[in-house]
Design brief:
Helices cover about 80% and strands about 0% of the residues. The protein contains 20 helices and no strands. The longest helix is centred in the C-terminal third of the chain and has 40 residues, at about 405-445.
């Protein structure tokens, strides 16, 4: 028994390490973006393009990655994905230019992640019984969420004291350790005589790629109405057209897969599994979890780093309380309450996220310090940990183990969409509220000269940038603005910045409340209990 527990622990550690890696370097890259840009001789926009491309490659290939796991075997797909990912990390670590960095990080790591993430979901199903899966999925999923929280701290430490390149060197070493441990994993045999649906692969990649790209570009182009200076197609933002086109291509993909199934051919994904209400409920909750998680991790670091001027290291330290309660909930709930209702736990998870957002919203006022994020982070960690402890088990246990790879592809596609929308939505609401509040405040402030008011209205019509008081004061001094006017504008910026953060958090709170309603489709019994009853 101890030997089996030790082997299971090694498998769990290996899969959790893989999940941690998939999230860590993206978080580090966001924190170190300016340093990376300078180091490889490009602009911040160039690195932002690389980040966008990484997300795009990973999201568009996720369903295909799940199917390849069935064809190759989950353990082999996981190992191949790790090797591709490790090669990408090595190339990124030594990249002398943006082109090399994009090939290593955006393309190779993105493709590797598309093989690894669905395989992780399937390998948990292969290595753990139904009663053990909630805890296993909880710990694996929590590793990714902890990487999001720890990313700013790790990125800040390496960027400040060593180099961002050492993060990717470290990833190569971790990948080598993971590959050495994969032999201990149990695996389902690869399916024989199954070919990859190339038409379905192209349609799914194109459809999902268009949707994700439209979401990612909506912040710069506008969601529906084009921003000033942004391109427009038939009077609307290209983002909405890209998302609509992507949705149409996904519909064509599902129609093609249904046709293949009717002809007795192997589909890339079986569309009939989407009729499973339990699976749909789990996927919907995953979508809301990652949307809220991404939105919160967009707004809170902005408050800490821009509004309060904290460094990346200090920001990372302030986010760490989330990791503590996340691990506590993800590992503790299945152990202490093994027969708890998944529906109840998921609802409590969303309720904790809602409470964390509301507490942050209430505490966000002029003069507030970094300490106000502690309780919101603790509550958010409990919420994410509670969700992580149940949702993976719910989705995989809703279908046969043979379909776990397909579910892994769908699950990670949905989480990518949720995270992309959460970041884009939070950013769009924040900039819109900031612009409205700031321009209104400047227009009604008697200390601001009329010529400055008119110039601000024209120059900032496309959106007010979210900047610190020091950055704004420096820009005003360079523009020759008087001290009195500068003080008034900086004060309006501080007020507008807080109003924008409140607006962004308020939208997230509403979405958390909506997620509670959708969680009613989660089953009331644990999968293992339901299986014994039947």
């Amino acid at each position: 028994m101890d030997r089996r527990a030790g082997a299971a622990g090694i498998v769990l550690l290996t899969l959790a390490a893989g999940q941690f890696l998939m999230v860590l370097d993206s978080s580090v890259m966001n924190v170190s973006i300016a340093t990376v840009a300078k180091d490889v001789g490009t602009t911040v926009t160039g690195i932002q393009t690389a980040i966008t491309l990484y997300t795009l490659v990973m999201a568009s290939l996720m369903i295909t990655g799940g199917k390849l796991g069935q064809i190759l075997g989950r353990k082999r797909a996981f190992a191949i994905g790790c090797m591709i990912y490790g090669c990408g990390s090595f190339i990124t670590a030594i990249s002398p230019s943006l082109g090399v960095l994009m090939f290593g990080w955006s393309f190779l790591e993105g493709a590797g992640a598309a093989l690894i993430l669905p395989a992780i979901v399937a390998l948990v199903a292969s290595n753990f019984t139904r009663s053990e899966r909630p805890r296993a999925y909880g710990l694996v999923a929590s590793a990714g969420a902890i990487a999001v929280a720890a990313g700013p701290l790790i990125g800040g430490l390496f960027t400040t004291y060593l180099s961002w390149r050492w993060v990717f060197v470290g990833e190569v070493l971790i990948v080598m350790a993971i590959l050495a441990l994969t032999r201990r994993m149990a695996d389902q045999p690869a399916e024989t005589g199954v070919r990859l649906d190339l038409v379905g692969t192209a349609l799914s990649a194109l459809g999902l790629g268009l949707i994700v790209f439209g979401i990612l570009r909506s912040g710069a182009w506008g969601f529906v109405q084009p921003k000033p200076g942004a391109p427009q197609w038939i009077g609307l933002s290209p983002a909405i057209w890209l998302m609509l086109a992507g949705g149409f291509v996904v519909w064509l993909f599902l129609a093609w897969e249904t046709r293949r199934l009717a002809r007795g051919e192997e589909p890339l994904i079986d569309p009939t599994i989407l009729r499973n209400s339990t699976l749909r409920g789990g996927l919907t909750s995953f979508f809301f979890q990652y949307l809220l998680q991404a939105g919160l991790f967009f707004a809170v670091p902005l408050f800490l780093s821009v509004a309060l001027g904290l460094s990346a290291i200090e920001t990372g330290v302030r986010l760490l309380p989330l990791s503590l309660t996340l691990l506590l909930a993800a590992a503790g709930i299945p152990k202490v309450f093994p027969n708890a209702s998944p529906r109840r736990v998921v609802q409590l998870g969303f309720l904790a996220l809602f409470a964390g957002i509301v507490v942050m919203l209430a505490a966000l006022e002029a003069g507030a310090g970094a300490e106000i994020v502690t309780w919101p982070m603790l509550l958010a960690g409990l919420g994410v940990g509670a969700l992580a402890s149940q949702l993976g088990s719910v989705t995989v246990s809703s279908v046969s183990d043979e379909q776990s790879g397909e579910v892994g592809g769908l699950q990670n596609t949905v989480t990518n969409l949720g995270a992309s929308i959460g970041t884009a939505l939070s950013g769009a609401v924040l900039i819109a509220a900031l612009s409205t509040s700031f321009l209104t405040g400047v227009q009604h402030n008697p200390a601001v000269p009329a010529d400055v008011k008119s110039k601000a209205t024209v120059q900032l019509a496309g959106g007010v940038p979210f900047v610190s008081d020091a950055q704004l004061r420096s820009a005003l001094q360079q523009a020759g603005t008087s001290t009195e006017a500068s003080d008034a504008i900086v004060q309006e910026n501080e007020t507008a910045r807080l109003a924008a953060l409140r607006s962004s958090l308020a939208v997230l709170a509403v979405i958390a409340a909506i997620a509670l309603l959708f969680s009613r489709t989660i089953p009331a019994e644990q999968p293992a209990t339901a299986a014994r009853a039947s």
